[in-house]
Structures are given as structure tokens and as C-alpha cells.
Automatic annotation (TrEMBL):
Pfam families: DUF3086. It comes from the Bacteria. Residues 169-203 form a coiled coil. Residues 27-46 have a biased composition (Acidic residues). Keywords: Coiled coil. Residues 75-84 have a biased composition (Pro residues). Residues 1-90, 240-273 are annotated as: Disordered. This is Uncharacterized protein. InterPro entries: DUF3086.
Length: 452
């Protein structure tokens, strides 16, 4: 009841003591049209349903229509009132209120079919949600298992990388130690080689060549001047009377001039008495220039003698009388060609009595002389060294001793001095045949750089 004495429809509808009303089923079926929308249940206070947005009805399979049960507390067959004659009665106020309340109650009472459809839709949605929840839970379990596997793989990978890095670092450390040991060994070897080079002849010769280069030039120039002055000196001849008083000689016929090949003690090429020997020398030089024999026997020149080389040989024979220095030709090979021509001519004059000696201060230069003579004179290895052929020397003292023994054996020594010699021993000047190549002061060659 309201405060104004009227009845409350909700309390009357939900009251359990409300008297059951008889509803005609046929009338209800006529009111529920097939296309009518279900009436909202205004009395349902379910928060879950109210919180949902507009619900899209789910299409369901058509089901056979079932008879809508009558909402009755105790179903009874409808009682038909007995027909009676209409009595004209005047409706009272209570009757009007009762009719109005009945109409309102009928309008507000939910239809059974709408409630059933809503319940089925909600049940289907709840079922779908539960199924989705179970699927999500299964996926969560699966993802957690995958996560655990990935974490285990990460741990294993980190462990493997750590082992690999540790192994690599160990190997690199071992290699570094080996390299350090190798570097230390190489440094010690380098220091040892430096010490050996500084103590060896090559290293010492470099320092000596640098320090004495200027002094060598002075010595060479002085030696050349000394040779020229010695050749120009005229020794006084004793008077004939004094010679007769000191050493009276018997009267004998004047000796006939001997060929130069028979006099091996002091060869002469310029005096008129030895014109035959000079002719042989000139003929040999001309033959070497104009008609060289490239297949000549050993000890004969096998190369063409150019004009400049022929002039050097002629000057040494006829101007310096086989004893003197000539200006170098600029290279050791050209000097060897000039010396080979002189050896070939002297070999024709003296034969096997000739002994050639070469003086150079380095084994490399002596090797050049050996190869040059082999090429120009057709010599072989047995022609070098020993008591015959060509003998090579680095020390002038040893050369002088060998020359003394050759002279004692009554053989003819021929000394050749390389242009690398800074000075010539005065003992060499006493021998009858010697050829020295004087270096060109305008083209000085460093001894160390020549064979570097």
C-alpha cells in the first residue's frame, strides 16, 4: 500500500499470498505475436545483465514450439461463470481501482516466452565464456611451459657461450705467450747478427770505407804521381874509363840482340833492339780488333777489342813499357777485357812461363775477375790457382811472397791490381810486369754500395 492508501503493484505481484489468477492461455497466445519483441524484466536486478551493452541475439536452430505453460501457482481449468441475466449495476470506486490494478499487473508481468529466450541466450553466452576461459587457461599453461623452456634454453646458451669465451681466451693467451717468446728470440737473434756484422769484415769494411774514402783518393793520386816521376828519372851512366878500370873486360864481340821471348828477366818493348817483339804485340792487338776469333783456344782473346780498349793496351805496352797504371774504363768488366788482352799478348810471348796474379780486396771482386777471364780467355777451373795459370789474392803481402817464389823459379810474373785498391805496395813496383787500374776521381764508387 502506498501512503495514499492505494495498492503497490510490485508488492502485490511479488507477494506470495497473492491470490492466483486464472489466465486464459488462448488469450496470451494471441497477444504474443511472432514478430513482437520481448518485454524487459523491469523487476530483475541482476547487475551482470544490466552492465552488458546491447546484446545481439544469437541465431539458434529452430526448435519445435512447445505449449507455453501458464504461470500459475496451482494450475486449474478455467471456470466458466454461469450465464445469468445482465443486471445493471453501478460500478463503485473500489471496483474501478481493482480493474485498474489488474490491468497494470497484466502489463507488468513478464511474458513466459521472452523470459525463456533471454535465459537461453544468457546460458549460451555463459557457456561460450566458460569455454573461452578454459581455452585461455590452457593457453596460459602452454605459454608458461614455453616460457620455462625458453628460459632454460637461455641459461644453457649463456653457459655454452661462457665456456666458449673462456676457451677462446685461454687459447689466445697461449698464442700471445708463444708470440712473445718468438719475438724475444728474434730480438736476441737480431742483436746477435748486429754484433756479428759489426765484428765481421763486411761491417768493418763499411766503416773503414767511409772513414778512409778521402785518404784513399789522396793515396791514389800520390801513387800515380810517384809512378810518373819514377819513369821520368834518368840515372847517370858511369864513364867508360871508370868501368874499364874497375872491371876490365876481355875483348869480345858485341852480343847480338836476343828476342824478347828469350829474356824473361827484364822485358823491353820500346827499344829499337826489340822491334820484332813490338811488331808481334801490334799484330796481336790489330788482330783482336779487326778479326776476333770467338772460338780460339784457351789463353787467346775471344772477344772483340774496341778502339778505346786497344789504345789502353798499346799505351801500356809501348808508352809505359809494361809497367804502370792506366785510368779505369768505368766498370770492372771493361777493365777485365783490357787485362785479358794484355794476358793474351804476353802468353804468346812467354808461353807457360807467364804467371798472372790478380790483387783485389774483396772476394766478390775476385769472383768478377775469375768469371771475366773465363769468358774472355776461355779458361776453366783448373786454370786458376796452384802453380800455373792465374792466381787470385786479397792480401798484397801474400802476393809479394808468391811473386818472389815465381822469380826464384825463373818464371815471368804479371801482376794486375784492381781499381778498388786504395794503395799499392812499393814492393810491387820492383817487378818487371805490372798493370794497375787507377780509379777515376770524377766517378768514385763506394766499396760498400758496389756489392750491396
Amino acid at each position: 500500500m502506498n501512503f495514499d492508501g492505494t495498492a503497490n503493484p510490485k508488492s502485490d505481484l511479488k507477494s506470495p499470498n497473492r491470490s492466483s489468477e486464472i489466465i486464459d492461455v488462448s488469450v496470451v497466445e494471441e497477444e504474443i505475436a511472432p514478430g513482437s519483441e520481448p518485454i524487459e524484466d523491469v523487476w530483475d536486478n541482476n547487475d551482470e545483465v544490466k552492465a552488458q551493452p546491447s546484446i545481439t541475439p544469437v541465431a539458434e536452430e529452430p526448435q519445435p514450439s512447445a505449449p507455453i505453460p501458464a504461470i500459475l501457482s496451482s494450475p486449474k481449468p478455467p471456470v466458466q461463470p454461469e450465464p445469468s441475466e445482465p443486471v445493471a449495476e453501478t460500478p463503485t470506486l473500489d471496483d474501478n481501482w481493482a480493474l485498474l490494478l489488474d490491468e497494470i499487473g497484466q502489463e507488468l508481468e513478464p511474458e513466459p516466452e521472452a523470459s525463456s529466450n533471454f535465459s537461453d541466450t544468457t546460458t549460451a553466452k555463459v557457456t561460450n565464456l566458460l569455454r573461452t576461459e578454459s581455452q585461455i587457461a590452457a593457453e596460459i599453461v602452454k605459454l608458461r611451459s614455453t616460457q620455462a623452456q625458453l628460459q632454460q634454453q637461455i641459461v644453457d646458451t649463456q653457459t655454452s657461450f661462457g665456456q666458449i669465451i673462456q676457451t677462446s681466451v685461454t687459447e689466445l693467451e697461449q698464442r700471445r705467450q708463444k708470440l712473445q717468446i718468438s719475438v724475444e728470440q728474434l730480438e736476441r737473434r737480431r742483436d746477435r747478427l748486429k754484433e756479428e756484422i759489426s765484428k765481421s769484415f763486411a761491417g768493418a769494411s763499411q766503416d773503414v770505407a767511409i772513414r778512409l774514402q778521402g785518404f784513399k783518393d789522396y793515396l791514389v793520386g800520390s801513387l800515380q804521381d810517384l809512378v810518373v816521376i819514377a819513369e821520368e828519372i834518368e840515372f847517370p851512366q858511369p864513364p867508360p874509363a871508370q868501368i874499364r878500370l874497375q872491371t876490365p873486360l876481355p875483348k869480345t864481340p858485341a852480343p847480338q840482340p836476343q828476342p824478347a821471348s828469350k829474356d824473361r828477366s827484364s822485358p823491353q818493348f820500346t827499344e829499337p833492339a826489340f822491334k820484332a817483339t813490338a811488331g808481334k804485340v801490334r799484330a796481336a792487338i790489330d788482330r783482336y780488333r779487326s778479326a776476333p776469333d770467338y772460338y780460339a783456344p784457351a789463353w787467346q782473346l775471344r772477344r772483340t777489342l774496341e778502339a778505346v780498349h786497344a789504345d789502353k793496351v798499346s799505351d801500356w805496352f809501348f808508352t809505359k813499357d809494361g809497367r804502370g797504371a792506366v785510368r779505369t774504363m768505368g766498370s770492372r768488366l771493361q777493365n777485365i777485357l783490357v787485362a785479358a788482352a794484355a794476358v793474351s799478348v804476353l802468353r804468346e810471348l812467354y808461353g807457360d812461363y807467364l804467371r798472372t796474379l790478380v790483387l783485389a780486396n774483396l772476394p766478390e771482386r775476385l769472383g768478377d775477375w775469375r768469371r771475366g777471364f773465363q769468358d774472355c780467355l776461355g779458361l776453366s777451373k783448373p786454370d786458376f790457382g796452384g802453380n800455373g795459370g792465374i792466381i787470385l789474392f786479397e792480401d798484397p803481402e801474400a802476393l809479394i811472397q808468391k811473386v818472389d817464389r815465381i822469380v826464384a823459379n825463373k818464371e815471368m810474373p804479371f801482376i794486375i791490381v784492381d781499381n778498388s785498391e786504395g794503395q799499392i805496395s812499393l814492393s810491387i813496383l820492383q817487378y818487371p810486369l805490372w798493370l794497375a787500374f787507377a780509379p777515376d776521381p770524377d766517378r768514385q764508387l763506394d766499396d760498400y754500395r758496389e756489392y750491396r
